[in-house]
Design goal:
Layout: E1 3-5, E2 12-17, E3 22-29, E4 31-41, H1 47-51, E5 59-63, E6 67-68, E7 87-89, E8 92-93, H2 106-112, E9 116-119, H3 123-133, E10 136-142, H4 149-157, H5 168-171, E11 177-179, E12 187-192, H6 199-205, E13 209-214, H7 220-225, E14 230-233, H8 244-255, E15 260-263, H9 265-273, E16 277-294, E17 300-312, E18 319-321, E19 324-332, E20 338-343, E21 348-351, H10 366-383
Parallel strand pairs: 4-5, 5-7, 6-8, 7-9, 12-13, 12-14, 14-15, 15-21
Antiparallel strand pairs: 1-4, 2-3, 2-10, 3-9, 4-10, 11-13, 16-17, 16-19, 18-19, 19-20, 20-21
Helix pairs in contact: 8-9
Length: 384
């Protein structure tokens, strides 16, 4: 929980890690205190999209880029209706935004949304610490919230772990809504919101898909009430081991052999539905410069990531599941983490990263075309 007052650049602040490491700097954004899992993101651009990505719920994000805030804050690039990170850590905040699109500074937006941050610390040393010891619980304290170090460490250690955290329902929409197709409507998709980014249904709409975004608590009856040509499971925060409801829903979709596409959290849900396990990565993949190989084509893509958990599936063989044969379709070239799954006997696939790429590269945009091709193939088969 965050409490705050309006900040000032000279207000002292401290970042406290659960292992006792402490970094001292200055308040950035709101002044007060906040808690979360400390993670680092390697993106050189796109901080506005990162901060408003619901997948970052309950995380304190460390920006590895040395200067943050140059482009300020605009009203077009938000990926949701609010900032979701619980705290923000930067080294050198820009004094003045210099983009013609900026409406205000990043610091002003953090204050307006009550997000406690810290600046002026050695983010390179912090990133190395997290790489060596893993992502961990942390707290940012500034102004009157600063207390003796042992007390602050104890308060951080009393916070819940990310492993075992069920967060997707708290970030998902509570009411269904529709994103209309751009131009001629070709397909209808039911999209399960587990923390969906705004650009995702937009990418589908650009391909003639009418997207019905449904709450995370949607049932199979809710899904099929919209008469979908396909079903989509979105990104989202937390531990996929807690997502029994979405796994049951995906199982129902797979049983009906409806074309299915999942990204990020949706990839982990597909993994669980197929009988694979999931596990927490040491420090995760976060940023817009992660190399992934599409094993179906051999192509290497630069991709946008935000995940701290992964699917435990074999890389070296085709697996037999209750829904037919399944294989790992994509793999991270940095560490061989599973980055995609596909069924070989029915139309379902998923990737662990973000093909909508807001912000980030567009190497993986073809995956939305692959989804439309699956729906088209199934439709043609039904007509035959």
């Amino acid at each position: 929980m965050t409490t705050s007052t309006r900040g000032a650049a000279r207000t002292p602040a401290v970042l406290v890690l659960e292992d006792g490491r402490i970094f001292r700097g200055r308040a950035y954004g709101a002044v007060g205190e906040t808690f979360g899992e400390a993670v680092f993101s390697t993106g050189m651009t796109g901080y506005q999209e990162t901060l408003t990505d619901p997948s970052y719920d309950r995380q304190i994000v460390v920006a590895t880029a040395p200067q943050i805030g140059n482009t300020g804050w605009n009203d077009e690039d938000d990926e949701s209706g609010r900032i979701w990170v619980s705290g923000y850590v930067v080294r050198d905040p820009a004094r003045v935004p210099s983009s013609w699109r900026a409406k205000r500074s990043l610091d002003e937006e953090l204050v307006a949304q009550n997000v406690v941050g810290i600046s002026g610390i050695d983010t390179r040393a912090l990133t190395r610490h997290l790489r060596e010891r893993g992502s961990m619980r942390a707290g940012i304290f500034s102004g009157e919230a600063i207390a003796p170090e042992p007390e602050l460490v104890g308060r951080v250690q009393a916070q819940p772990h990310m492993k075992g955290a069920s967060l997707y329902e708290e970030v998902a929409t509570k009411e269904a809504y529709v994103v209309p197709a751009v131009g001629e409507k070709k397909f209808t998709v039911a999209a399960i919101d587990l923390g969906i980014k705004g650009m995702t249904p937009q990418r589908m709409a650009e391909r003639g898909i009418e997207v019905h975004v449904l709450p995370a608590t949607a049932t199979a009856e809710d899904v099929y009430a919209v008469e979908p040509d396909g079903v989509f499971f979105s990104n989202g925060p937390g531990d996929p081991a807690t997502a029994d409801g979405p796994v049951a829903l995906m199982t129902a979709v797979l049983e009906r052999k409806t074309p299915l596409f999942g990204i990020c959290f949706g990839n982990q849900i597909l993994g669980r539905a197929l009988g694979f396990g999931t596990y927490k990565l040491k420090y995760g993949h976060r940023g817009i410069n992660q190399p992934v190989q599409d094993r179906t084509t051999g192509k290497v893509e630069v991709t946008a990531h935000n995940h701290g958990f992964a699917v435990d599936a074999p890389l070296d063989k085709v697996s037999e599941t209750k829904f037919g044969r399944a294989e790992v379709s994509h793999v991270c070239l940095n560490d061989d983490v599973v980055e995609g799954l596909q069924l070989l006997d029915q139309p379902a696939f998923s990737v662990q990263y973000h093909p909508e790429a807001a912000a980030g590269p567009h190497d993986a945009a073809y995956l939305f075309d692959r989804f439309t091709s699956l729906m088209s193939t199934v439709r043609e088969g039904q007509r035959a």
